Amino acid sequence: MESTMQQRKDEILAKKAKLAELKRQRELRREGQASRTSARGSPDNLFQPTPSRADEKRNLDSFINNIIGDSRPGSTQPGSPSGGRPARPTSVLSASQLSSDNEISPPFKRLSGMVDRETQTLSIAPMATVFEFDGDTTTTSVTSVKGQGKEKEVITYSKGVQTSTDWSPIRGRGSGGSDSERDDSPTSPKAKRLSRRQKEREEDIRANLKKEIEEEIRAAQQASLDADATTSGSKDNFPFKTLSNEELAAVENSEEFAGFVERSTKVLERALDQQLGYDILADYAIGGMDVDEEDEGYGSSGGKKGRRIKELAQFWDERWSKKRMISDLGFSTKFPELVLASYTKNPSAPHDPDGLVQVWNLHMHDRPEYIFHAQSDILTAKFSPFHPNLIIGGAYSGQVLLWDTRAKSSPVQKTPLTGSGHTHPVYSIDIVGTQNANNIISCSTDGVVCGWTVDMLSQPQEFLELISPPPAKTEDVAMTCIAFPQSDPTYFLAGTEEGVIYPCHRYDRAGAKAGVDSRARYTGHAAPVMSLDFHPAKGHIDLGDLVLSSSVDWSVKLWKVRPPAATGTSNGSTQGSTQLVKPILDIAREDLVYDARWSPTKPSVFALVDGAGSLEVWDINVDVEVPMQKVMPSENKRGAFASMPSGMGYMNRSLNKLAWERNEGRKVAVGGMDGVVTVFEVGADLGGLETRAEEWSGVKRLVGRLEGTGETAVNGK
Amino acid sequence: MAQNTAEDTLSLLTRISQKPGVQSTLILSRDTGAIVRTSGLISNTTSANPNSTLPASLETAPDNYSNGRKEGGMQSAEDVASLVWSFLGAAGKLVDGLDKEDEVKLLRLRTKKNELVIMPDPRYIMIMIHEAPSA
């Protein structure tokens, strides 16, 4: 008896010890779980608004997977050994309940569906364990009592799941769920065989999950409340992130960011400048007194309305335009708001590229649209009329350069410095031909004329060396400018430093060899010819044989050019002797004339710029002695000479170049020594597309009269 | 070539932020909404990197308090950023609703006092607030 009693006692003690041990283990495990919970899924994390609901869901999923995966690896997979065995009908039941509840609370449909899924995932976990532990843990004697005790706690889990669909009272209705659970678990024979440890684990997981889900729900409620309350501008939902210095630096150094800034700041500047030009919200009923905007100050001119000239914009850039002179100007034919300006080098900035071309936009006043560079001063540049993206330039080094607005600032193609091609400065360049067959023609001051194709600048397609005919002192034809007539791309005029203008042929032809046509010479200028311009002749009467030349001998001259084929025969002079052609009109000016250009639309209008810094617009039908208009660029942007007092004399205001906008003929760009590009708009009488037939016939009559009165008509000044 | 260094990029931004009439500029990252650059705005939290602030235009400095600004004279960059963010989201929704394949390229919003120019790009968003010409 004693011994049996003792035995019993020992047994009880052992059991107690075992129990205690189990309890301790359970405590430990719970602690571990708890710490894990706080580590991974702290409420803070959940409450933090994340960009999208999908993220939250993913977080929770992964968290649950973590928990279950940790405690029982591999059991979360739906395809685990226990697959398909309905060990816990609860989950199925609750799932159906949930789905029915879903319809009651549509706003949270998606969320509850999600919770639902978690429940199912959870239910699979114990199933797997059941299967695995079937064999070895059935005999533990303590389980049955303890198991029952545990079952009650399982109910709380069930509550959680069930209430999750019913949002506000989370603990509200537990009975239904617990009933089903109670009904279910004790009767299931498998459940009784679950080891205590398993149950503990399972229960822990459930408790954890319950906590998680509740938190999730609360977070979701919070979020949805937020969203409802402040649909717009909910700062809680705004994904803020502070960039560290390193991140900032990384962003700023990225090519992408540079491109973005380049693009966006251009847009912003255009937006700003557009606003300045005209306010689309203007209400004329309110203001209504800014009628006299036609102010007659500096930069604009008075006179009859149609003959006015108004300054539109001035372009100058502190960084690049400084101390450079404008060497050429040109409008884009495709985008008439774009003006290119080529510049000489800045003598005080040896590290900057010598050559510079800036493309200005009339809608963006303070900053060039594009900047292109070259290693040598650019002396001439123009947009290719056939490829709107291409800009062709001639350099002091003798190179012909090609830039592309789609590429970077360095030229995409250039001719070699040595060998074939030019070895002297290229002052004049033209693109002749048609859309499909065009050539770049360039000329240098040593008398070399080259023809290039746009696709290949490595060597010239044509090479022609002009030789001065006998009376000249030197052999070289020091060309300063060339001009092609509209009708014939094989024939051109070349203006020289001596002041003589030679007619030239690109190719051998009947009665003339390629090169300078020795049968005619246009003499009249006493100093270097600065510009030559054929009449654009697009009207009723062909005036394409009229040429305008300007020179630093203070004059502009009008010539009637002999047709190239007829030069030798028409006037009966003997072969070989040179006919000297005189200008039909000589207009003396008060200063050096640097450039003179026909209006592209009005047959009788031309513009000139001079060393005194004025732009003059002439209409030879109205007057051949006095310009219609004379204006000077305003001094808003005084460019390189900003620091000097005004009225310093000639040099600082001198204008070198002028260019007409070719499509409408309303705008004229001028530029000069100070590096400032100024764009003027001329009145309807001096520009625009509308021309009357009398204007054309008037020019014709004038030319006939001038020819009749003698070779030269000096206007007496 | 000329525009590719970070320095040049920065000077472009400084330029625009100092143009007359420009009150503030802001660059946000498109995906996170993080503030990359600001000018003319103060940041009241630590959300903005202090280094990201550019010099603002001088004329909008102290004497323009009344012009659509809060008591402190400046609006906080975060407020503007989040407001613009949600505005852009709404605009995006609108465009999406009209045509799935379309996207927002530029937003100009005129108010009585200011104009906002918002230019979204694939990676960044540029925001400029400037004085509207007195109409």
Quick structural summary:
Chain A is α+β, with helices and mostly antiparallel strands.
- Tally of separate helices of chain A: 13
Terminal CA distance of chain A: 153 Å
Which percent bin holds the helix content of chain B? Answer: 25-40%
Per CATH, the architecture of the domain at 309-564 and 576-639 and 651-715 in chain A is: 7 Propeller
Task: Let me know the number of strands of chain B.
Answer: 6
Strand content of chain B: 25-35%
Rounded mean pLDDT of chain A is 72
**Biggest sheet of chain A, strands in spatial order?**
1-30-29-28
Strand content of chain A: 15-25%
CATH topology description of the domain at 20-41 and 76-134 in chain B: Beta-Lactamase
Report on this model:
Chain B: Belongs to the GAMAD family. The complex is a heterodimer of chains A (about 725) and B (about 140). Chain A is built from 13 helices and 30 strands. Chain A is α+β, with helices and mostly antiparallel strands and about 725 residues long. Chain A has a domain of about 375 residues: Methylamine Dehydrogenase, Chain H, CATH 2.130.10.10. The longest helix of chain A has about 40 residues. The radius of gyration of chain A is 46 Å and the shape is elongated. The C terminus of chain A is likely disordered. With about 140 residues, chain B is α+β, with helices and mostly antiparallel strands. Chain B has a domain of about 80 residues: Dynein light chain 2a, cytoplasmic (Beta-Lactamase), CATH 3.30.450.30. Helices cover about 25% and strands about 25% of the residues of chain B.
